[in-house]
Design a protein that fits this description.
single chain; 175 residues
């Protein structure tokens, strides 16, 4: 067995370290090559994706450019329409309030007129009743007394009234 001296061990260690560094360098070069291929593949995919997406983005951008003025016009028109509707609603509300106020005033006026007419009719009715009823009662009393006088003058028998009542067939049924 050969004799292992210090120099030989150092030489073996240096050779092992050099071999490890060589393997590490090979692995790093392989990783670098793999990363370059991956980067190139990703770059190609991005270019394909960009070439597919860019027309869509351009079309969308053009569409937005064309539609934006119309959207702005529509928004302006809607704002004007809303203001106009708000103003018209306020005018209709004011007109409705005025009409309701006038109708209420007319209703109060008609109510007052009808009340005064009905009061006048009631007073006239009371007056007519008093004016007609009182003379009618007096006339009725006068006619009743005249009838009683005429009947008493017509009766020649001279019989009393109680006898006349008995003769008529009452037979004292009335108490």
């Amino acid at each position: 067995m050969p004799h292992l001296d210090n120099q030989t061990i150092q030489l073996a260690l240096v050779a092992a370290v050099a071999l490890a560094m060589l393997i590490q360098a090979i692995v790093l070069v392989a990783a670098l090559i793999a990363l370059r291929k991956l980067a190139k593949s990703i770059r190609d995919e991005m270019e394909d994706l960009r070439s597919a997406i860019m027309p869509v983005i351009e079309n969308t951008r053009d569409l937005i450019k064309r539609v934006t003025p119309r959207i702005m016009e529509t928004t302006t028109d809607l704002a004007a329409l809303t203001r106009s509707l708000r103003n018209q609603t306020a005018e209709v509300q004011a007109a409705a309030d005025e009409i309701i106020g006038r109708a209420q005033r007319q209703a109060r006026r008609v109510d007052a007129m009808l009340s005064s007419v009905l009061d006048a009719v009631d007073r006239a009715g009371s007056f007519m009743a008093d004016t007609v009823t009182k003379p009618m009662r007096q006339l009725s009393a006068f006619l009743a007394s005249a009838k009683a006088v005429i009947e008493s003058l017509r009766s020649t028998q001279g019989a009393s009234r109680a006898e006349a009542n008995r003769a008529s067939g009452d037979n004292d049924l009335f108490v």
